[in-house]
Amino acid sequence: MAQEKHRMVELFFKSWVDTICNNEVSINRVSYTADLDWLEIFRADFENPEDAVALKLKGIPLEYQTYIEIIV
Q: Where are the alpha helices (DSSP H) in 1-72?
């Protein structure tokens, strides 16, 4: 069940970022354990720096804010 939730968040993240950035972004997943908590980070490398700004300004949709956090 947890694996399905993580996959759903990954699919949403890719769809959300690709829509905002016109598919001009490379997304990589990094997973690790820190302080007994399993963390998964999606790293987005933008072709256009202004896409990163647009993503931050647009913000995370409410239904995913408990799952996703923007880290600068």
A: 2-20, 49-58
30-49 pLDDT per residue, tens: 776 667 677 777 788 889 98
Amino acid at 68: I
Tokens of 53: 């700004």
Neighbours of 8 (CB within 10 A): 12
Per residue in 12-29, pLDDT tens?
878 888 888 888 888 787
Beta carbons within 10 angstroms of residue 68's beta carbon: 14
CB atoms within 10 A of CB 28: 9
Q: What are the structural domain ranges in the chain?
A: 2-64
